[in-house]
Specification:
The complex is a heterodimer of chains A (129) and B (400). Chain A contains 4 helices and 9 strands; from the N terminus they run βββαβββββααβα. Chain A is of the alpha+beta class. In chain A, the strands form 2 sheets. Chain A has a 6-stranded antiparallel sheet with strand order 1-2-3-9-8-5. Chain A starts with 7 loop residues before the first strand and ends with a helix. Chain B is an alpha+beta fold and 400 residues long. Classes of the chains: A alpha+beta (129), B alpha+beta (400).
Chain lengths: 129, 400
């Protein structure tokens, strides 16, 4: 699966989409879900929580392991995808559709500092070799 | 470091396995979905490459007497050739060197299957114990037949027993302890495992259909045993390396799905089976690790570690846990009980129960039915102590 070109990516394997209302949507990448395997548990941050850039704010757990999810930029949690609580396997089936949470960034321009799809793919390639 | 490969490595790659470094071995963790493979074994059948485990053959006149001394379980339970026994091998202080399966092949030939990560340590320990036992109990290993040569057990207690034969001579070792690292092992597991193996291997049904659980039979250069590590029916097949890839493909052609070591771990945990290095090791005794049923303290025989087990009551015990809250139990998480703190040794998500389950090392006094708390990150989650196994032969055995 290729990484969508309209998204931004973090070194810790989150994807980020900027919405028309200025919020950002966050999920984990195809590569991340593939490494972790079958998802069985998702814990999202509380609504309204203030997050610093790179702060641990959510957890995904597969049968194999638990993995932290980090805030891509600083901001406030504006929405969470409650559907994943009962259906965490959606992350495996559709990693770029099964979003985890939305944030209102403190500074929308911070998103520009994240990687584009090509840079992220280069990182994945270097990690898997 | 170059990873070690089993004879089936190319088969795994061809079938799309996700390979990981598994204790220095390049092994499949899954072929796509660990949960799918888990259900496959519970409901139909699947196959696992467990060739990283080591086969050790011990031969010699006194092999039974040696194993009576070496192992915590009693090989005298093995009367019929082919019969298997699960046992721990202990240190003098009662700590577990390894857990293993021993097969009674012939009166002067027993076969052991030991864990991969401990195989070299196990061999060194067996050889050390063998040297000591041969020296202190020469009558057991006498090459010349004599009436006394059969009665080591009785003569052992008498000081000043006279050796009645020769042993350990060059070219005629009293005990030959040889590992067979070139032997592949394929576990075919699940309610349909036997019929699918029979379909894949013409002529095998006649030779193996009368095998009772926990027994095996030599079939040409192979050894087929009705054993496993999943809680389901099935076979474990030891097969020479060069024949293993063809056999694997034959099984696949009959619809036996390849499964990774990830599913093997969730299956064994549901089935209530310990994993060496997680649930017990040299710092715990089998009595503390839920394996009292594998230790024979009743018979009069001596064995390595027996004195320590008798002298030291268990300091803690192993319990099964089911998580009532959402989340996943993992090894090393702290467990808070009414009797003090414990620790999870193996934890996972149980695909059959669709809940998280675990083994935990907990203080004496904790009982099935008790409620405990598990520290998961910054939260305290509620869990219930249960009697395990959790699942056997496709059926849930616990009730909440």
């Amino acid at each position: 699966m290729s990484n969508p070109g309209n998204l931004k990516y973090t070194t810790s394997h989150e994807w980020v989409r900027t919405e028309s209302d200025g919020t950002i949507t966050v999920g984990i990448t195809h590569h991340a879900q593939e490494l972790l395997g079958d998802m069985v548990f998702v814990e999202n941050p509380a609504l309204g929580r203030k997050l610093g850039a790179g702060e641990e704010c959510a957890v995904v757990e597969s049968v194999k392991a638990a993995s932290d999810v980090y805030a891509p930029v600083a901001g406030v949690v504006a929405a969470v995808n409650g559907e994943l609580e009962s259906a965490p396997e959606k992350i495996n089936a559709d990693p770029y559709g099964a979003w985890m949470f939305r944030m209102k960034p403190d500074n929308p321009a911070d998103v520009n500092g994240l990687m584009d799809a090509a840079a992220y793919q280069a990182q994945v390639d270097s990690e898997t070799h | 470091m170059t990873l070690k490969q089993t004879p089936l490595n190319e088969n795994h790659r061809a079938m799309g396995a996700h390979l990981i470094d598994f204790g220095g071995w390049d092994m499949p963790v899954n072929y796509g979905s660990q949960i799918g493979e888990h259900h496959q074994v519970r409901h139909d059948c699947g196959m696992f490459d467990v060739s990283h485990m080591r086969v050790v053959d011990i031969r010699g006149k006194g092999v039974r007497e040696f194993l009576r001394y070496l192992l915590a379980n009693n090989v005298d339970k093995l009367v019929k050739p082919g019969k298997a026994l699960y046992s721990c091998m202990l240190l003098e202080n009662g700590g577990v060197v390894d857990d293993l399966i021993v097969y009674f092949m012939e009166e002067d030939w027993f076969r052991l299957v030991v864990n991969a990560g401990t195989a070299d340590k196990d061999l060194a320990w067996m050889r050390l114990q063998a040297a000591g036992h041969v020296k202190s109990h020469p009558e057991c290993y006498a090459v010349n037949e004599s009436p006394q040569s059969e009665c080591c057990a009785e003569s052992r207690e008498k000081p000043g027993t006279t050796p009645t034969g020769t042993m350990g001579q060059e070219g005629n070792p009293a005990l030959d302890i040889a590992d067979l690292p070139e032997m592949a092992i394929i576990a075919v597991q699940g309610p349909k495992a036997r019929e699918k193996l029979w379909a894949a291997m013409p002529g095998s049904q006649k030779l193996t259909e009368s095998l009772t659980p926990f027994s095996g039979v030599v079939v040409g250069s192979m050894f087929i045993a009705r054993t496993g590590y999943t809680g389901e029916d099935g076979f474990e097949v030891m097969i020479p390396a060069q024949a293993a890839p063809y056999f694997w493909n034959s099984l696949a052609a009959k619809g036996v799905k390849p499964c990774g070591l990830g599913a093997r771990d969730t299956l064994r945990l549901e089935a209530g089976m310990n994993l060496y290095g997680q649930d017990m090791d040299e710092s715990s005794t089998p009595l503390e690790a839920g394996l009292a049923w594998t230790v024979d303290l009743k018979s009069g025989r001596d064995f390595v570690g027996k004195a320590a087990l008798l002298a030291n009551p268990p300091r803690h015990q192993q319990a099964g846990l089911v998580l009532l809250d959402r989340g996943v139990l993992r090894g090393h998480q702290r467990v808070l009980t009414a009797f003090g703190e414990g620790e999870i040794t193996s934890g996972t998500f149980s695909p059959t129960l669709e809940k998280s389950i675990a083994f935990a090392r907990v203080p004496n006094g904790v009982q099935a039915g008790d409620m405990v708390q598990v520290v998961v990150r910054d939260k305290l989650l509620a869990a219930k102590v249960v009697k395990y196994p959790f699942v056997r032969n496709g059926k849930v055995l616990i009730s909440l």
